[in-house]
Specification:
Blueprint lengths: L2 H33 L1 E6 L4 H4 L4 E3 L1 H10 L4 E5 L2 H10 L4 E3 L15 H10 L4 E5 L4 H5 L3 E3 L4 H7 L4 E5 L2 H10 L3 E4 L5 H4 L3 H10 L4 E4 L5 H4 L4 E2 L2 H10 L4 E5 L5 H7 L4 E3 L15 H10 L8 H16 L2
Parallel strand pairs: 1-2, 1-3, 3-4, 5-6, 5-7, 7-8, 9-10, 9-11, 11-12
The structure holds 1,3-dihydroxyacetonephosphate and iron/sulfur cluster.
């Protein structure tokens, strides 16, 4: 077979795959209407999944959408704690997580019984839990927070001592911004923890004009090199507002897709080693279609836990 024939063959296969993708996306949209469903998609999801979204955003934006939607079914393209938060806010809806194995290793680093014990050991501290926690951990917390509002929430709580769960990096960032004593849990996001200052410096050698946008789940040494520290959706605002035309983006590489869509005239690069969250990549178009067809797999939370977790989430949302 000649090189040209091989190339034509490859193009045919790619074309077929694209046709399949387009056909599945079309079926998803049709099923979504039949089911009266809304599709909520996190910024790290695969591009083709972001393309079928009714709303794409960060954890805060997605939970607000989950709270306000009038749809009967919420298809959550993200990870488990995000779907749980949607159910906590909208228990009358059917909440679907197309891939049940899509978890968050950082959320798994905080166990509710351990947090309750730490809370008892620190009676003068309020417990602020990052949204990347199980519903059971939220249920033993005073406030929930996300990367978009962690500083604001910690400032607002009525205590000068705060037990911050589970992300040690976000806790350190918050501690640098507020005048309170922060007791940090020891958890971390493996995807962000793997980004080092050296990775940023290497990327800066290749793109010397680029500004650095970092997620606050990154290590302090990475945040020290950042021009902007933002939640995933906050990164979109930072890129649009900045006069810079090149950016090194210190977060999961799925973020490059919404950034390129929002500012097509600008260029976005991952740090030297591309940060990937395997859990965020588990959701595919076929799984979304299957979930809509079968109304499975569903995420629910026992009512007794949900009601207590709702208190922490609502206290956060009430802060605006
Ligand atoms: P955002 O809320 O900023 O989208 O972050 C969620 C997350 O899991 C980051 O790793
Ligand atoms: Fe969890 Fe990190 Fe993946 Fe976000 S990127 S879902 S914090 S493992």
């Amino acid at each position: 077979m000649t090189h040209r024939e091989t190339q034509v063959g490859q193009i045919d296969i790619i074309h077929e795959l694209l046709l399949d993708e387009a056909a599945i996306a079309e079926q998803v949209i049709k099923m979504k209407e039949e089911r009266n469903a809304v599709i909520l998609v996190h910024n790290y999801q695969r591009p083709e999944v972001q393309d079928i979204a009714d709303f794409t955003g960060d954890s805060l934006g997605l939970s607000r959408e989950a709270a306000r939607t009038e749809a009967e079914v919420i298809v959550f393209c993200g990870v488990h704690f995000m779907a749980e938060t949607a159910f906590i806010l909208s228990p009358d809806k059917t909440v679907l997580l197309p891939e049940m194995r899509a978890g968050c290793p950082m959320a798994d680093m905080a166990d509710a019984a351990d947090v309750a014990r730490a809370r008892d050991e620190n009676p003068d501290a309020m417990v602020v839990s990052y949204v990347n926690t199980s519903a059971a951990v939220k249920a033993v917390s005073d406030y929930c927070c996300t990367s978009a509002n962690a500083v604001q929430v910690t400032r607002a709580v009525a205590s000068d001592r705060v037990l911050f769960v589970p992300d040690k990096n976000l806790a350190a960032y918050v501690a640098s911004q507020v005048d309170k004593e922060i007791i940090a849990w020891g958890g971390f996001c493996p995807t962000h923890e793997n980004i080092t200052a050296q990775h940023i410096e290497l990327a800066k050698i290749e793109h010397p004009q680029a500004e650095v946008i970092a997620h606050p789940e990154c290590r302090a040494e990475v945040l020290a090199l950042a021009d902007h520290i933002r939640s995933t959706s906050g990164m979109l605002d930072a890129a649009l507002e900045s006069p810079a035309t090149e950016f090194i983006v210190a977060t999961e590489s799925g973020m490059l897709y919404p950034l390129a869509n929002a500012a097509p005239e600008k260029s976005f690069f991952s740090p030297a080693a591309e940060p990937l969250c395997p859990n965020m990549k588990l959701t595919t178009l076929s799984k979304v279609l299957w979930a809509l067809q079968t109304l499975e797999p569903r995420v629910t939370v026992p009512e007794e836990i949900r009601v207590r977790a709702l208190g922490a989430v609502e206290r956060m949302l009430a802060l605006g």
